[in-house]
Amino acid sequence: MTDPPPPIRAFLDANDLFSAAIGGGVARIWDLPNVSLVTSTYALTEAHNNLALAVAALEFDDQCLARLNDLASRTEITLHDPARPPSDAHALSDPDDVAILHGAIDSDCRYLITGDKKCFGPFFGKSLGGVTILRPAEFIQTVQASR
Asked: Where residue 22 falls among pLDDT bands split at 50, 70, 90?
């Protein structure tokens, strides 16, 4: 009998957590079989803070914060090391996104899922530090095609 393949480890950027919490289609990622979702305290805090501001501005209701908490409970959350120096090897335009990339690399993820076109756009479909960067829809298609 053959052992099942190990789960695909995928790191979620803050914008994906935010989008899923407000009811976006990215939430389908949590329903994919054989996928282990990971994020960092850094990304989760950013998503929570941005969502709390949007709720306070009456753009969204409190249910979105509850949804974010539910999604976080089904996600492996790694610690963010703010003292970790940025790597010169990853020429990203925003230092915050360097931290996201390092979170994916440090947690042994195969994919970084992000909708951040500004910083990661030139790298969609490419690998940085051994992590392939994909948009949420592309990740869903990749996982479904591998079954």
From this structure: very high
**39-86 pLDDT, tens per residue?**
999 999 999 999 999 999 988 898 999 999 999 999 999 986 655 555
Which residue is it, tokens 């690399």? 105
Cα atoms in the Cβ-side hemisphere of radius 13 Å centred on 109: 33
The terminus-to-terminus CA distance of the chain in angstroms comes to: 18
Number of H helices, E strands in the chain: 6, 6
Q: Which residues contact 21 (CB under 8 A, 6 or more apart)?
A: 47, 51, 64, 65, 67, 68, 71
Using a cut of 0.85, tell me whether the model's pTM lies above it. Answer: yes
Residue 83: predicted pLDDT: 59
Contact partners, residue 48, CB within 8 Å, separation at least 6? 65, 68
For 14, the 3-state DSSP assignment is helix
